[in-house]
C-alpha cells in the first residue's frame, strides 16, 4: 500500500521504568505507531526527531520501510538509538495500517518460527549472571519453567535485583547448585534445558566452566560449549546484536543475514517488545532479555497470534 502516508512524527519525554525516556510517535493518514527509547540527552533526541528527520519523511509511504530507512540513514543524525526508534515507530504505523502484527509486516504472512528466550535468574554484584535456556517448542513451557525455577530459588535467596533475578555473593560458587536444580527439573519436565553464564572475559579466566553449556562474554575464551561474542570471531558460535546500535530495521536485517551467511547464530539483546517481533520476522533463533522486560511476554503474545490468527493487537 502506497497510500499510507506519513503525516507527522513527533517526540516527547515520558516517565517509564523509573527513568525519563523519549516516546517517538508516527502518525499516518490511517494509523499510528510508536517506540520508546532511552537516551542520555532527551531534549537533543527530541530535536533530532522533530527538526532533522521528521521533515524528511513526511509525505512518504510508511509501508515502504526500505525507502524510509534509507532517508533516515541519509540524515545528519548519528545517534543509532534515535534512528532505530524512528524506524520502529514508522514500521509499527505501517503494520497497524494493514491491521497485521509487526512481525508479519516485516517477515511475511507465513512467518511462524519463534526464538528461544533466555533470562537471568541469578546474578552477583559483578553483574555475572546465570540463565536457563529452555529448548521448548512452546513459549508457555519457557514461562512455566522460569516461574518454577524462581519459586525454588526463593527458598535459598531473598534479594531480587531490578532485573528480576535473585542476587548472590559469587555466581561461580552457585554454579553446581543451579546445575543440579536445572538437571532435576529437566528430568521432571522432560525438557532439554541448558545452563548459560554471562560474564566478562577476565573474570571467566581460570574458572571451572565444566558445568556451563553456554558462555556469554565480550571476547573469545577457550570453552567447550557455545560461545557468544560481540564481534565476528572464528571461535564463536553466536554473535550479539543490540538493535539500538544498528541504526534502522533495514540495517539490522542485512546484518543478521550477514551473520547467518557466516554460519553463525545471531542473538538479540534488549527489553523492547518490538525486538520480539523483529526476532521472529528475521528468524533469529535466540533472544536474551531481562525477567522484568516485555520481551518474553511479547514472544508469548506472538505465539498466541500465530496459533489464533484472528487475534488483533495494537
What does this structure look like?
The protein has helices spanning 42-57, 65-73, 80-97, 102-107, 139-153, 171-189, 201-204, 249-261, 273-281, 295-307, and strands spanning 6-16, 19-28, 32-37, 116-118, 122-123, 129-134, 166-167, 193-198, 214-216, 226-229, 238-241, 265-269, 286-288. The protein folds into 2 domains: 6-99, Enolase-like, N-terminal domain (Enolase-like, domain 1); 116-307, Enolase-like C-terminal domain (TIM Barrel, Alpha-Beta Barrel). The radius of gyration is 20 Å and the shape is globular. Helix 2 (65-73) packs antiparallel against helix 3 (80-97). It is built from 10 helices and 13 strands. By secondary structure, it is of the alpha/beta class. The model has no long low-confidence stretch (mean pLDDT 88). The strands form 2 sheets. It has a 10-stranded mixed sheet.
Query: What is the tally of helical segments?
Result: 10
Total E-strand runs: 13
The CATH superfamily name of the largest domain is Enolase-like C-terminal domain
In spatial order, strands of the major sheet run 4-13-12-11-10-9-8-6-5-7
Number of domains as seen in the coordinates: 2
Overall 3D form: globular
In helices, the fraction of residues equals 25-40%
The ordered string of helix (H) and strand (E) elements is EEEHHHHEEEHEHEHEEEHEHEH
What kind of sheet is the major sheet?
Answer: 10 strands, mixed
| pLDDT < 50 stretches | none
Classify the fold: give the CATH topology of the largest domain. TIM Barrel
Q: Kindly report the oligomeric state of this protein.
A: single chain
- CA radius of gyration is 20 Å
**What's the architecture of the largest domain in CATH terms?**
Alpha-Beta Barrel
CATH C-level category of the largest domain: Alpha Beta
Note the gap between the termini: 19 Å
Amino acid at each position: 500500500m502506497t497510500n499510507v502516508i506519513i503525516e507527522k512524527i513527533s517526540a516527547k519525554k515520558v516517565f517509564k521504568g523509573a527513568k525519563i525516556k523519549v516516546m517517538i510517535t508516527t502518525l499516518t493518514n490511517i494509523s499510528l505507531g510508536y517506540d520508546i527509547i532511552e537516551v542520555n540527552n532527551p531534549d537533543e533526541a527530541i530535536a533530532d526527531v522533530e527538526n532533522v528527520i521528521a521533515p524528511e519523511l513526511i509525505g512518504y509511504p510508511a509501508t515502504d520501510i526500505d525507502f524510509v530507512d534509507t532517508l533516515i540513514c541519509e540524515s545528519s543524525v548519528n545517534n543509532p538509538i534515535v534512528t532505530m526508534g524512528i524506524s520502529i515507530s514508522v514500521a509499527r504505523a505501517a503494520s497497524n495500517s494493514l491491521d497485521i502484527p509487526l512481525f508479519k509486516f516485516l517477515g511475511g504472512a507465513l512467518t511462524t518460527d519463534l526464538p528461544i528466550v533466555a533470562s537471568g535468574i541469578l546474578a552477583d554484584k559483578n553483574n555475572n549472571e546465570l540463565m536457563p535456556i529452555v529448548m521448548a517448542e512452546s513459549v508457555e513451557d519457557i514461562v512455566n519453567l522460569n516461574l518454577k525455577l524462581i519459586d525454588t530459588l526463593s527458598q535459598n535467596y531473598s534479594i531480587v535485583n531490578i532485573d528480576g533475578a535473585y542476587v548472590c555473593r559469587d555466581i561461580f560458587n552457585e554454579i553446581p547448585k543451579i546445575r543440579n536444580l536445572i538437571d532435576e527439573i529437566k528430568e521432571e519436565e522432560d525438557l532439554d534445558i541448558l545452563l548459560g553464564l554471562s560474564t566478562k572475559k577476565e573474570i571467566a579466566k581460570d574458572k571451572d566452566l565444566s558445568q556451563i553449556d553456554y558462555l556469554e562474554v565480550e571476547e573469545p575464551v577457550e570453552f567447550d560449549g557455545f560461545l557468544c561474542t560481540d564481534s565476528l570471531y572464528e571461535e564463536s558460535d553466536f554473535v550479539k546484536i543490540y538493535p539500538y546500535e544498528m541504526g534502522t530495521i533495514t540495517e539490522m536485517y542485512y546484518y543478521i543475514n550477514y551473520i547467518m551467511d557466516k554460519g553463525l547464530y545471531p542473538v538479540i539483546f534488549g527489553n523492547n517488545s518490538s525486538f520480539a517481533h523483529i526476532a521472529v520476522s528475521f528468524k533469529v533463533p535466540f533472544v536474551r532479555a531481562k525477567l522484568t522486560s516485555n520481551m518474553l511476554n511479547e514472544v508469548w503474545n506472538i505465539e498466541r497470534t500465530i496459533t489464533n490468527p484472528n487475534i488483533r493487537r495494537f
